[in-house]
Amino acid sequence: MGLRTGAGWIEVIAGSMFSGKSEELIRRLRRAKIARQKVQVFKPEIDERYSVDHIVSHSEMRHESTVVRTAAELLTRVEPGTEVVGIDEGQFFDKELVDVANKLAERGIRVIIAGLDQDYTGQPFEPMPQLLAVAEYITKTHAICVRCGQPANYSQRIAQVEERVAVGASDMYEARCRRCFVPHADAPTSHITEA
Ligand code: ADP
Ligand code: ZN
Predict the structure, then answer these.
(1) Which residues are catalytic?
(2) Which structural domain range is residue 75 located in?
(3) Among 2, 69, 90, 120, whose Cα sits 20 to 30 Å from the Cα of 188?
(4) What is the pLDDT of residues 128-183, one digit of tens each?
């Protein structure tokens, strides 16, 4: 990313579940550390899959992280000298994350945010749409549809839970393409596929 030294910016990595967002975030963070940059990583308190002090991909890649409850708290936890801020599960933050990301970028920090761009019904998942609007760089990741093998852009909920936020992995969700996605909470549960 060839911006002038000292200038910050926002990168967003968005896509469905299992599309490799966390892997891509971790890859970028590791490269920043190889370049001896000071890196801090945050995730929201709601995501307690796997680990409280690491972000972890479905493929078991991991990176240390700090849990924060709100975007405002995240801002207070950024230390002097930090050059890169990574944020996973951006969709579970409040809408203030947009202001916080802008503030950090204006301070000269490279901000990298990974998150789900749609919920399990296919609706845009705030605050990701707003972050996509303000980001300098956007990467859209795709999973593989477990039904047909085409690129998947949707997270199909296969467990019977009504809440918008229900944290789970391949026990509760599977990747589906547009043709195979059924945008209702009452999708059949008889096709649970281990991902
Ligand atoms: P995300 O953060 O987008 O949920 P992760 O980075 O945590 O994705 O995990 C990506 C990994 O998930 C892949 O490298 C692969 O090992 C695994 N995986 C499981 N199911 C699928 C699928 N249907 N399509 C692609 N990758 C999958
Ligand atoms: Zn499909």
Answers:
(1) 89
(2) 9-141
(3) 90
(4) 999 999 999 999 999 999 999 999 999 999 888 777 777 777 778 999 999 999 98
